[in-house]
Design a protein that fits this description.
It is a single chain. The protein is an alpha+beta fold and about 80 residues long. It has two helices and two strands, in the order E-E-H-H. A two-stranded antiparallel sheet has the order 1-2. It starts with 18 loop residues before the first strand and ends with a helix.
């Protein structure tokens, strides 16, 4: 199954929007986080991203952390079944 990810720290959308959309065989799942991100939080996210890229430093929330969380969720789902 193909996948795609995109990220934009500056988009000309009105009203502004922040969130995640996941498309599954059963349809789309949309989580809107617009109200939970203030300007200070957004600035910190962008600053950390730029620092990580410019200095080639790993970030604690990298692909390895994502894989770890995915495995935890899979284990929890199996335990609940």
């Amino acid at each position: 199954m193909p996948s795609e990810a995109s990220n934009s720290a500056r988009a000309q959308l009105e009203p502004g929007r922040a969130g995640v959309e996941v498309y599954t065989e059963d349809g789309a799942i949309d989580v809107d986080t617009s109200l939970s991100l203030d300007d200070r939080t957004t600035t910190r996210i962008v600053d950390e991203f730029v620092d990580t890229v410019e200095r080639h430093r790993p970030h604690p929330l990298d692909v390895h952390r994502g894989l770890h969380l995915q495995r935890l969720l899979a284990t929890a789902a199996e335990d609940m079944a």
